[in-house]
Amino acid sequence: MNMNAFSKKVAIVGTGLVGSSCAFCIVNQGICNELLLINKSHERAVGEAMDLNHCGDFTHSRTKVYAGTYADCKDMDIVIITAGAPPKPGQSRLDTLASAANMIEGIVANVMASGFNGIFLVATNPVDIITYHVWKISGLPRNRVIGTGTSLDSSRLKSILSDIIPVDPRSINGYSLGEHGDSQFVAWSHVTIGSKPLTEILKENKERFGNISLDEIMEKTRKAGWEIYNRKGTTYFGIANALTHLTRSILNNDHQITAVSAILDGEYGLQDVCLGVPAIITMNGIEDIVELNLNPHEVQQLGITYDVLRSNMQTIGY
Q1: How many helical (H) and strand (E) elements, i.e. helices and strands, does the chain have?
Q2: Burial of residue 285 (number of CB atoms within 10 Å: 0-12, 13-18, 19+)
Q3: Is 253 within any annotated ligand binding site?
Q4: How many other CB atoms are found less than 10 A from the CB of residue 111?
Q5: CB-based burial of residue 89 (10 Å sphere; 0-12 exposed, 13-18 middle, 19+ buried)?
Q6: Is 93 annotated as a binding residue?
Q7: Which residues pair with 199 in a beta bridge?
Q8: What CA–CA distance (Å, rounded) separates 118 from 203?
Q9: 10-residue mean pLDDT series, the chain (318 residues)
Q10: 40: closest CA among 14, 60, 61, 71?
């Protein structure tokens, strides 16, 4: 890739609620110079591009937004895939795997046929398995295929904790790991507030925080998306901002650490799987995977989420 001050070109495939919200975030934050929108209904993409271009007088920098085709992906630095449908009532994210995998095959094949040689950012659920699928179909190095993973779950965790312990969520450091789904878990041994371990804070402040249940907080984190889904039908603002954050991290070569769906090749003792772990994000994509020193219980939980993902991956031939 050749990302310099005159490049910074991003494409979004899928201009539904997630894709259009992501485009809105990117335009408002002035992250890229050009933003290409691709949608099954081209006219929908044209409408979104027109609407976003009309923001130009009110943003601090100009982003050229236009609708196009897969052929236009050739010189994109990043292609963001948001296409997909939310689960139907009673379904989990994993229940959408077969239809999502089939749809993704066509998208990735078309993008790669353009000559694309950049970075894929994937939000389509079930995101861990779909990210692995994109990697396999694309033939790109594993560092250049990134899923949103547990980035949003980790943000939800910090938001929930900040409601209980009165600090800004940005002063909380910690991650939800594993599947972006029901088998994810919080690595409590690595959650800190102002660099102080949360477990120490709870022990030292039993009168204030003695009634806090870490299991309840973890369950709230897991179910946060469903709480939103049950009220408004799907989620899009949070995931759109997670995608925007990752896009900025790549284009600015930020070296920020974010929990993303990363394809593992020996990290955490796991191979041939993609799941949510902290990683350093740069212009190369995943520069490095951060291996946390998990305690025995957390290692066991990581094994459970691995087994869930691997068993579901087998249903689409992996």
Answers
A1: 10, 14
A2: buried
A3: no
A4: 26
A5: exposed
A6: yes
A7: none
A8: 47
A9: 68 97 97 97 98 92 96 97 84 86 96 98 97 98 98 98 94 97 97 96 88 94 94 95 98 97 98 98 97 98 98 95
A10: 14
- Position 1 scores a pLDDT of 53
- Determine the Cα angle at 317 with ends 74 and 274, to 5°: 65
Is 305 a known ligand-binding residue? Answer: no
70 is in an annotated binding site: yes
pTM of the predicted structure, to 2 decimals: 0.95
Domains and CATH numbers, the chain: 9-147 (3.40.50.720), 151-316 (3.90.110.10)
Measured distance CA(149)–CA(186) in Å, rounded: 13
Contact of 257 with 287, CB cutoff 8 Å: no
Cα-Cα end-to-end distance for the chain: 29
Report pLDDT for 117.
Answer: 96
The answer to whether the CB of 144 falls within 8 A of the CB of 78 is no
Residues classed as catalytic = 180
Within a 10 A sphere around the Cβ of 141, how many other Cβ atoms? 13
Identify the DSSP state of 273: E
| Residue-wise DSSP of 191-260 | -EETTEEHHHHHHHTHHHHTT--HHHHHHHHHHHHHHHHHHHSS--HHHHHHHHHHHHHHHTT--EEEEE
Grouping H, G, I as helix, E, B as strand and the rest as coil, residue 66 is strand
Alpha helices in the chain (DSSP H): 17-29, 42-53, 97-113, 127-138, 151-164, 198-204, 206-209, 214-232, 237-251, 296-313
Query: Token pair for residue 27?
Result: 């335009």
Residue 156 annotated in ligand binding: yes
Nearest to 103 by CA among 125, 119, 135: 125
